[in-house]
């Protein structure tokens, strides 16, 4: 067995199609962890506050055209520009809860069906980022997600496209994924999230090594 590393924070990621409840559940998780005195930060990707993030926002929100490969690499660069800060916080014992991460990067771009932008290529450019200890995947039929309202405001918010994204996510699942029924009541989902997240926080505090994408 490998020797344990230094205590660290856990990396917990929320993923799923639009409107499945990632922001709701990641907020609830952060609040409950804080109430239990866990040192935790809440981030989202894309991080629209950086220069790269502003370009992404222009593309998603403001109809600015962009080459598919270029925009894919902007999303990736937006994670890499935060990589050192992520590593520093985790090493210092802060748990990071992320609202979307690399899995969104792969699933949304691969869903476009551009020949050279397949899932394998999309994963390859994420290599070197820290891997999540836990991916909470919030599963829900795209029709039901669309019925929650708010679809149509941004570029990818179309039912057909969301179906393709859901298929891409299916192919990414690994042993770190917890798939939850996102159509349940928020409080019920939260209990399941807590049941999975707390052991990850404890493992990380005991020095479980941080993984690397995509080992
Ligand atoms: N993207 C990409 O292409 N490449 C990348 O690398 C990354 C992202 C990182 C922006 O994402 C876009 O960027 C996104 C992927 C792409 N594509 N699109 N479009 P975003 O995270 O900024 O936006 P979003 O996915 O559209 O998320 P959202 O609209 O913020 O949805 P959410 O956070 O999953 O859901 P929510 O806001 O928590 O809840 C939605 C509504 O449902 C709201 O009214 C809630 O009150 C309600 N809700 C929540 N939970 C429940 C339950 N359990 N029951 C009933 N109602 C609920
Ligand atoms: Mg959200």
Shape: globular
Q: How far apart lie the N and C ends?
A: 17 Å
What is the name of the CATH architecture? 3-Layer(aba) Sandwich
| Count of individual helical segments | 9
Provide the β-strand percentage band.
5-15%
CATH C-level label: Alpha Beta
CATH topology: Rossmann fold
Quick one: how many beta strands? 5
Summarize the helix and strand pattern as letters: EHEHHHEHHEHHEH
What characterizes the major β-sheet?
5 strands, parallel
Weakly predicted, low-confidence segments: none
Bound molecules: ligand Z5A, magnesium ion
The order of strands across the largest sheet is 2-3-1-4-5
Query: Class by helix and strand content?
Result: alpha/beta
The quaternary state of the protein chains shown equals: single chain
The value of Rg in angstroms is: 17 Å
- The proportion of residues forming helix, as a percent range, comes to 40-55%
What is the CATH H-level superfamily? Answer: P-loop containing nucleotide triphosphate hydrolases
Q: Could you characterize the architecture of this molecule?
A:
One of its GO terms (molecular function) is ATP binding. It comes from Volvox reticuliferus. Residues 14-193 form the Thymidylate kinase-like domain. The protein starts with 10 loop residues before the first strand and ends in a 10-residue tail after the last helix. The protein has one domain (11-205): P-loop containing nucleotide triphosphate hydrolases (Rossmann fold, 3-Layer(aba) Sandwich). The chain is globular and about 45 Å long. Strands 2-3-1-4-5 form a 5-stranded parallel β-sheet, sandwiched between helices. By secondary structure, the protein is of the alpha/beta class. Helix 1 (22-35) crosses helix 9 and helix 5 (102-110) packs across helix 8 (159-170). The protein has 9 helices and 5 strands, in the order E-H-E-H-H-H-E-H-H-E-H-H-E-H. The model has no long low-confidence stretch (mean pLDDT 96). The chain has helices at residues 22-35, 51-61, 68-80, 83-91, 102-110, 119-124, 142-147, 159-170, 186-205, and strands spanning 11-15, 40-44, 95-99, 134-139, 177-181. The site of ligand Z5A has 23 residues, from helix 1, helix 5 and helix 9.
